[in-house]
Each structure stands twice: as structure tokens, then as C-alpha cells.
Amino acid sequence: MTWVGKALARKEDHRLLRGRGRFTADVRRTGLLHAAFARSPVAAARIGAVRAPDTRAVHAVFDAESLGCADVLATLHRPEFVSTPMPVLARDRVRYAGEPFAIVLAEDAYTAEDGAELIAVAQEPLEALASMCAALAGEPIHEGLTANTFLDVFPFEDPDIDRVFADAYTVELEFRSARVAALPMEGRACLAEWDERDEQLVVTVSTQVPHQVRTAIAESLWLPERQVRVLAPDVGGGFGLKCVVGREEIAVAAAAYRTGRAIAWSEDRVENLTASFHGHEQRHLVRAAFDEQGRLLALDADIRCDVGAYSVFPFTSGVEPLMAATELPGAYRVPRYRARARGIATNKPPTAPYRGVSRPQIVAVMEGLMTEAGRVLGIDPVEVRRRNLITEFPYTGVNGITYDPGSYTESLDRCAELLAGEERGPLRGIGFACFNERTGYGTEAFAARKMEFTPGYEIANARMDPSGTVTVITGTSAHGQGHETTLAQVTADRLGLHPDQVRVRQGDTEATPYGWGTFGSRSAMIGGSAVRSAADRLADRIRRIAAHLLEVTEEEIELSDGKALGRDNSITLADLARLSHFQAHRLPKGVEFGLEVQAGFDVSGSGTFSNATHGVVVELDPETGAVRIPRYVVVEDCGTVLNPSIVDGQVRGGVAQGIGAALYERLHYEESGQPEVASLMDYLAPTAQEIPDIEIHHLETPCLFNETGAKGMGEGGTIGAPAAVLNAVNDALSHTGVRISEIPIRAETIQRALEGACTIRT
Ligand code: MCN
């Protein structure tokens, strides 16, 4: 019996679906104080002294000075990057509407919020730079910046590229994507308390990266890391928003340290939409040169990312522009490439690596170019893709990335075949998106970004207790992905156990090995491989002990069904574990004490790429401009699938987010930097009504760099959907001559296009 590959129901759902989960806001302490933040009402101003409200209801108020924290500094070691500190509470200057400048503590959350509203601060307004255009023309918003670019890189140059364009068919595209919110069901939240006995600040926080939160808090408070313990209990979604450290989390920890009281904070939806981290506001000006057969000859891109007012810890504001420029060629062979990428500072909240990180944008760009090239050259756009997809692996691209084997053409062909019978015509269109997704970046791949904090490796512990059940402890930190199930499946197979006999533990810096957390679709590939190695080490030790007890060789021992089987005898793992712990004198000489091992995993080179093709059918309503999606097909390849139902759930959730980005979601700001979207009445997230059934088909090209064969896939749905929907809408509009290259696609734009076509005809 093997468990990997089985659609085992998620173990964590037992508690989560019965209300037995424990989220940060469920944790309560006696004498708990609640925190609220006083936030800037304007996008740009110099600020003076903070005046606390004259009310006894408020327990304490801290501003930047009285809280006394070191600024947060996220650094890239590259000359094109300007490091700018982020104060934990704004000091001297506010740079976006919603920026916190004081923390208020009170006996309950309502009083704390009322107190925060009464806080006064002297303000001298400054010109707000709320768009990339305004920012590039305006005064720097941080000392040390010129032209408001945190990062301005030309990572790929080609002096001869213009010559190539001069002799080729050129397709140009200006693509824009709106600023969006990650929108986890559970907003950010934390509870910090000073443990007098252990002399330790214990911080429960809704995060994807417990160890990075620990570093940020320890550094801000000048504490050694051992004096900070970070716990991530159940986390109600993160989507990248929680893989960076919020200044509120540091402020709450600092307030607990200063007062000695337990302090809790839970973000409300207004704060989540206006004052947390956003993503994906980008503009790409791209031209591509094709020969008359539709083969791509060159690509030239100018990429601008509005990364907001601060560089986030630990990834920095370089994450979106660097990802976009490095990965733009994607699944295609691009012989020549030139790119410039900028991370532009504006008076808006900072951006975090929201699910997909620039890949929804670059895939929309590449897929837009392929479709347009097909139209210009009179070649079926699916055929244009086929002619350009990478077909021989490993393939090293012009961007220096080496792509491991995948099923690029197969997934396109399969998807096209599945949609072959679908009708097209005015108001009904079909769109495709082919892409690859780099997953499981190892240390070497991350090091190319030149971050001060370079993630990559992962470590796992596996421990069998005296009753023969196993606990696996990893530094990855699930927040909805189902690791308790999939990592148990991997472990169970190696030890001949049932997954119910394996417990997966994460999210406690005191208990887990040092780890980088969960982001970048890394946990199956990197974390899962560390778990498998640890389980193998444990199995080796068990086999050694069993061989001794059963008087056979280690090679003869098989672990199966909760037993170590010898030639014609056996011992249950429960008996073996009991004996190993309580009768250590019966162990073979030289075997280490206990049944506890540790193993790490990293991958060298470019990492591993999963791939997929999304195909979608859309119907347009000429009256309302609404887009209906009667059919959505995904053909994806993430190597060996550990758990098909979890993978399908990830794809569905991702596609839903991608459809949201394609058709609805937009955090709009006025020129003054005021957010126009502050509630879910204004921020249109798709509901079950807008999301179609999603057909999912799998291809499996096992990963060559690990033993499990699994590649990651947690972001794929989000990556493919905007491009596929955009192409389908443009297909349905092809009779109008209008091509949309902006997401979200707005109903008014579709209406106008259809009305225009109607006028021309009559
Ligand atoms: N898996 C599998 N077989 C594979 C690959 C993955 O069974 N070949 C399983 C994994 O074991 C894991 C899940 O699928 O249970 C996702 O695995 P992986 O692709 O490694 O991604 P991570 O676990 O590292 O998750 C990160 C990814 C990212 S970057 C974001 S953002 C994201 C996402 O996953 N945010 C999510 N999925 C989310 N799902 C939920 N519910 N909530 C979020 O906030």
C-alpha cells in the first residue's frame, strides 16, 4: 500500500470544518490588552508630535519614539537597489493613507479603536504621488531615492536587438494590471506576551514565515533571537500577504515587551484592504519580433511595478520587478532578449509577493503576444504557441535559466483537444494560456536575487515516540495547503505506516528546525523532500534495530503495515519503538539513542518548473458587458502528484483568484492617494456564482531533483487564469477590432467595444 498519489481527505479538515481550529484571535489570556492603530488619513505629509487622547479608557499609547524600535531594513545587495528603512511606526513623515503612526492599548478592541480615532498628530501635507507616472516625475518620497525607483535594473541587454526588429514582424503590447488584495479570510492578527519565567517574548501570529517574523522582531528590539518565540497556529489563508512581516506585528510585540502585558491585535477588513500589503500593479510595454512562420526572434520589455511606499521585509520591493524581468520568456524559446525592470515607489501601501508574483502579468503578456502574432501572421494562435514552446529539455534560456523536463506541448495539445468542439463567434470566445511555474527555488536560485536573507533549503525532523507513532516537524508553514496530510502521506510510505499514525507539526520557532516557511510553491518540492529524507533516515535506523532483533540483515527488513518484517518473523513498530526507548541496552552496538533524526534538502541550479495550459470559453452579455464562463479547462503537470484532491483544490482556488484578477478585483486610488476601495462592497471578489466548474487534467513529468518526483504548483491557477480569460474575451470581441490588454477587464470596456461594433455595422 502506498499513500503518495492517493486522494486522501485532508486530515486538518477534521478540526477546521468542525470549528475546532485555533486561529490567532482564538487565543486568549487573562489581563489581555487589545491594540488598535492610529493611521494616517492622508497619503503624504510631514508629521509632528503625536498627542494621546485625554481619556482614562485607554491604557497606553506609543508613538515611534516611545515604542523605541529599530527600523526594519530589507536589503538587496545590488547597486541598482536603494535600501530604505521602514520605521515600525511612522516617524516624521507618512507615506500612504493608512500608515500606522501610533499604537493604542485598551481593555477591549472597541475602546482601543475609539482611542485611536482620538489621537491627534500635527500634519503638513506633501504632494501625494499615487501613480507610477506621478512618482517618476515627482520629488523622491525617501531620502536616497532618485526618480522614486527602489530598483531600476537592465538585467538583460542585447546591443543588436534593434536590428532583429528591423527585419521582422513586430507585435507590440501595452499591458496593465490593477493593484489587488490577497484577501485571506482571516486578516493579519497577532498576540504578544512576555514570559517572565523564560524571559522570552512569545508572539502568536497569523503568518506564513514564523522564523522571519522572529528575526524582524528580535532585530527591531535588539534582542537575541532566543528571546523571541513565534507561533503560527491555524492560519486562515495568506496568499503571500503573510510571507512578509507586518510592522503592526512588530509594534504589538514591542508594546508587550515594554508593558509586560499580553496584547492582541486583529486586523479588520478595512485595514486589510487599505493598510496591509497589496500586489500586482504593473505596466509592461513589450514588443516581440516574429518571423513569417510565427517563430519568436526577439523580445524587448519595459516593466514597471508600483511597489508602494516601502520595501517589505525580508523579500524587499525588488521581488515583483525581478521576477517579471527574469521569467518573462516563460515556456517559450526566446533567442534574444532585452529588459528593463523598475520597482517604483508611490504613496500607496507596500506590496508583498502576492500569489503568483508577477507571473500572472508576464504570462498575460506572452500569451497576448502569441495571440496577436497569430492574428497578424494569419496563423492559428495555438499553432504559434506550439512553434515557440520549449520542446527539448534541459533547456537553458536567454535569461540564464535552465528548464527541467516538462510537458509543455503535450499540455497545450491536450487542452486544445478538450476544447476542440467548442463554438466561437461574436460574443463567444476561446482563450488559452501556456505557462511554466518555477517552484521550489533552492538557495542558489534565490541567491541570484542577491537578498540579504536568502531562502532556499529546508530542514525536517522525524521522531518516533515509544508508542510507535511519528511526529514530523518542518520549517514550512502551511496556511491552507494541507501539509498535515501530504507530508504525512510521504512519511507514511517510507515507514510502512498509515498517515493517521503520522502527525505533522509546523509553526513554532521553538519546536521546529530553522525554516523559511511556506511561499513560492516550495513546500512539496523542498519541504517534502526534506521530510522524505528524514523519514528515510528514521527508516534506516528502524531497519538496523529490527535486523538485530529479528536476526536478519538490514536489507532483508521490510517496513509495512506498521511492522518490520524479517524473513519469517516480524516485530510491530510499536514494540520496536517501546524497546528502543525503554530497553536501550537491547539495541545493537553503535546505534544512536532515540528514534529521532533530522535531514535537510536544497536544490541547486535553477530549480524545477511545473507547467500547465489553461483553456477557457467565455460568453459576453452585450447589455451589461458581463463575462460568463461556461467552460474552464486546466491541463497541468506538477510532476508526481502527492495528493490529487489537494492539488485539484489548489488549482481551483488559484483559478478563482485568477478569474477575480481578470474580471473584478481592483484597488483603485484617487490622485490624492486616497483609497477608493475600503470594503468588500467595493472590492469585487468573485463568489461561487462567478466561478465555473473547473475541469482538471494531470500530466506527470516527475521532478528529477528529488526522490518524491513532486514539483510545486500552489500558484499555478492564479498564474494562468488572467491570460486565458483575457485571450478568450478578446476572441469574443474579435469582430469589433477592439483588443483589451488591461486587467481587470471592465464591463464598461466590453460594452463600449460592442456598442462601437454595432455602430460601425449600422
Ligand atoms: N502538492 C501535491 N503534489 C504536488 C505538489 C503539491 O500533493 N506535486 C500539495 C502539497 O503537498 C501541498 C499543496 O499541494 O499540500 C501545495 O504545495 P506547493 O505547490 O508546494 O505549495 P506550498 O505548499 O509551498 O504553498 C504555497 C502556495 C503559495 S506560494 C500561495 S501564495 C498559496 C498557495 O500555495 N496560498 C494559499 N495556496 C494556498 N492555499 C490556501 N488555501 N491558502 C493560501 O493562502
Verbal overview:
The protein has 762 residues and is α+β, with helices and mostly antiparallel strands. The chain folds into three domains: 13-126 and 188-235 and 242-274, Aldehyde Oxidoreductase, domain 3, CATH 3.90.1170.50; 278-444 and 604-754, Aldehyde Oxidoreductase, domain 4 (2-Layer Sandwich), CATH 3.30.365.10; 458-601, Aldehyde oxidase/xanthine dehydrogenase, molybdopterin binding domain (Aldehyde Oxidoreductase, domain 4), CATH 3.30.365. A hairpin with a 2-residue loop joins strand 24 and strand 25. The mean pLDDT is 96. Pterin cytosine dinucleotide binds at residues 184, 237-240, 355, 439, 479-483, 486, 518-525, 528, 638-643, 646-647, 650, 653, 710-715.
Number of domains: 3
Tally of helical segments = 19
The dominant shape is: globular
**What is the makeup of the main sheet?**
7 strands, mixed
Strands across the major sheet, in which order?
3-5-1-13-10-11-12
CATH class of the largest domain: Alpha Beta
CA radius of gyration:
27 Å
State the end-to-end distance. Answer: 68 Å
CATH architecture of the largest domain: 2-Layer Sandwich
Hetero groups:
pterin cytosine dinucleotide
Query: What is the subunit arrangement here?
Result: single chain
- Total beta strand runs: 31
How much beta, percentage-wise?
15-25%
CATH third-level topology of the largest domain? Aldehyde Oxidoreductase, domain 4
Structural class: alpha+beta
Mean of residue pLDDT? 96
Identify low-pLDDT runs.
none
**What is the CATH superfamily of the largest domain?**
Aldehyde oxidase/xanthine dehydrogenase, molybdopterin binding domain
